[in-house]
Design brief:
With 374 residues, the protein is of the alpha/beta class. 37% of the residues lie in helices and 16% in strands. The chain is globular.
């Protein structure tokens, strides 16, 4: 008995297959349309063997700075008899880390304006012979280095702007340091001190007049205000920072001691500060200054500084975030705080992130551990 002919499927049975085929055709056209510009670029560049687009220029100019211990200028039993080796090792470390600006601690001014280092409340004055020996030795080892002693003091304890005799004495010491003892300049560090403190800009003007146009007046400056830390004494307004820049040759902004608890917030804040500085600080050809961003690399665990948050790598990332499209002409790099607190691991991060070294050298500074172990 013959089998009945199979029933013809209803017309609707073909619709799902037609819809799928139509969808596939539509996707092919869409993908081709979206890929067309990419293919055109590949054909126009890669297929002709042209070089790829240039990489973003490195922000590192090997003109960075570092804050250093008092022993370089004041000596002491910890280093006496080891000076030649320490200075030679210092020259090696500066070259390895792209550091050109040395900020050795000279210390606060006393009641007569004479700088020195403080112990048990007493300021021990610097000895001119020791300073001259250090500057001469470093100039012989590497003439490109700039020795810029770090001095000033706390306000209003050490630095009293109304005490004209004290201020005049201090200004004279800045002249002697730069014209008799071989320093490339001086760095004024007065803290804590709010913006627009009366007498501060006048002090900058007096120091600059004393040291002259061929010496560097550097300022260790506070960063701009932030809602994260509404403390006027440790933040300077942007107009005041501009005035400081116009009155000096160099500004190193201390981008730390924020009290923040989260790394991502700290990185974001450093980026914001860096952008603000780039927009605010005029270059030397407009009567302004060059500037650097100060990076934290120390382990003090305080309410204002969390060492697991304010790290050298997060600060570097923040600077990169701000200047990813390029740095202004008066940006000179970063300044590390400090030589005696930054270990090999931290220098390795600096090498990789800031110096862009594929194989970090991680050369520590010789005052990380002094000859007597301190």
């Amino acid at each position: 008995m013959s089998q009945p002919a199979p029933a013809q499927p209803p017309v609707i049975a073909a619709r799902p297959q037609s819809l799928v085929r139509g969808f596939i055709d539509w996707r092919r056209h869409e993908v081709a349309w979206r890929l067309a510009p990419i293919v055109a670029v590949l054909v126009a560049t890669g297929c002709r063997g042209e070089d790829p687009p240039p990489a973003i220029p490195s922000l590192d100019r090997a003109e960075n700075g570092i804050w250093m211990r008092r022993h370089w200028l004041h000596g002491g039993p910890e280093v006496d008899g080891h000076e030649d080796r320490l200075r030679a090792d210092l020259a090696v470390a500066t070259r390895a880390n792209g550091v050109q600006r040395l900020y050795p601690f000279l210390g606060p001014m006393d009641h007569e304006g004479h700088p020195g280092w403080r112990k048990a409340g007493v300021i021990h004055r610097y000895e001119p012979e020791r300073v001259a020996a250090f500057t001469a030795a470093m100039a012989a080892l590497d003439p490109s280095l700039q020795v810029i002693p770090w001095t000033g003091g706390t306000w209003p304890h050490d630095v009293l702007f109304v005490d004209t005799e004290r201020i005049d004495g201090f200004v004279e010491h800045t002249r002697a340091l730069t014209h008799e003892l071989g320093a490339a300049g001086v760095q004024l560090n007065v803290e804590p001190m709010p913006s627009d403190t009366e007498g501060y800009l006048a002090l900058l003007g007096a120091v600059k007049q004393a040291i002259g146009p061929d010496r560097v007046l550097s300022v260790a400056a506070y960063p701009p205000p932030t809602l994260h830390q509404p403390v006027e004494e440790v933040h300077w307004s942007l107009p005041f920072l501009r005035d400081v820049c116009l009155a000096s040759d160099e500004v190193a902004v201390m981008a730390y001691d924020t009290g923040l608890k989260y790394r991502y917030l700290y990185r974001s804040l450093v980026a914001r500060w860096t952008r603000q500085l780039a927009e605010t600080l005029p270059p030397p050809d407009q009567g302004g200054c060059v500037w650097l961003v100060g990076l934290p690399s120390y382990e003090d665990d305080e309410p204002w500084h969390r060492p697991d948050v304010e790290t050298i790598d997060e600060a570097i990332r923040g600077v990169h975030d701000a200047l990813e499209d390029g740095a202004p002409s008066n940006f000179r790099g970063v300044a590390v705080y400090a030589s005696w607190t930054t270990d090999a691991q931290e220098w390795g991060l600096y090498d990789r992130l800031w110096r862009e070294q594929e194989e970090p050298t991680a050369v520590v500074f010789p005052d990380l551990v002094l000859p007597d172990g301190s």
